[in-house]
Amino acid sequence: MTDEGDKARDAALDMLEQARSGLITTAKTQASIIYLTNGRVTSVEVMEAMRAAGHGAAMAGVDPRWMGAVFRNGTGWVRIGWEPTGSHSRPVAIWGRA
User: How far apart are CA 2 and CA 89, in angstroms?
Assistant: First the structure.
């Protein structure tokens, strides 16, 4: 990605963090819990845990790209692999701690 692309992505994630701060904070907490339990975490696992914890209504109708703010650069997460657990078996990043 170019510097311009990085800037645009970071600006979009900054806006998401402001607009969806509660949702993102909850997701960060869930991600940490899953990581501590499993030694790794994916966005799919975080969303499933949030639905199970009663946050499904808060996520309904929200573009799932907000999850990028949970695992963005500088948050202490590093991509450690991929697995085909996304919609239509698309690859989803597996995250670990830096």
Answer: 28
Nearest of 12, 16, 49 to residue 30 by alpha carbon: 49
Stated as kind and residue range, the H or E segment containing 25 is: helix 21-38
For residue range 9-60, what is the model confidence (pLDDT) as tens digits?
A: 888 888 888 888 999 999 999 999 999 999 999 999 999 999 999 999 999 9
Residue pair 57/23 in contact by the 8 Å Cβ criterion: no
Give the predicted TM-score (pTM) of the model: 0.86
> How many structural domains is the chain composed of?
1
Domain range for 58: 3-97
- The CATH number for 16's domain is 1.10.10
Rounded to the nearest 5 degrees, what angle is found at the Cα of 80, between the Cα atoms of 93 and 27? 50
